[in-house]
Design brief:
Blueprint lengths: L4 H14 L4 E6 L16 E5 L5 E6 L3 E8 L2 E8 L3 E6 L5 E3 L9 H11 L36
Antiparallel strand pairs: 1-2, 1-6, 3-4, 4-5, 6-7
Length: 154
């Protein structure tokens, strides 16, 4: 399964532009593959302006965000692997999103190997006796759960 981070980042970028706001990104400059001007890195992070008047040749792929920008009048090529993207927000009001650490997704080729191995065996059902010793009785009902909900963590 692919990371949702690049999809969400692209959507937020477009949304900010549609609302005439200036997109900024926060980058973990210590991650491998990050190419930014090191003199502007503070506490291992750098904030970059992605406004249309500030950058050229923007590319936001599933692997990285790349563009050209000027720092101190000098053109610089910027490369930010998606894993190094910490946040995207609007300069004017701070509205945006901070990305947390994503769980490691299993590799696709590991799933392919498991699927190939299981193709030879057909799935089946079998009877299982309950632990309470009442093999012929009613199956034990699972406790009912409440309605699912989301909780905001700040």
């Amino acid at each position: 399964m692919q990371s949702s981070r690049p999809y969400i980042a692209r959507a937020l970028y477009e949304w900010l532009l549609d609302n005439e706001l200036t997109p900024y990104i926060v980058v973990d400059a210590e991650q491998a593959g990050v190419e930014v001007p090191r003199q502007f890195v503070q506490n291992g992070q750098i904030v970059l302006n992605l406004g249309v008047s500030a950058i050229r040749d923007l590319s936001m792929t599933n692997e990285a965000i790349a563009f050209s920008a000027r720092f101190g009048g000098k053109p610089t090529q910027i490369m930010v692997p998606i894993e190094a993207l910490i946040a995207i927000y609007a300069r004017e009001n701070g509205v945006g999103m901070v990305f947390g650490h994503e769980p490691v997704m299993p590799a696709d080729d590991a799933n392919d190997v498991a699927e190939e191995a299981s193709e030879d065996e057909a799935p089946g059902l079998s009877s299982v006796d309950s632990d309470d010793g009442d093999a012929g009785g009613e199956p034990e009902q699972a406790p009912k759960k409440g309605r699912p909900s989301l909780r905001v963590v700040k």
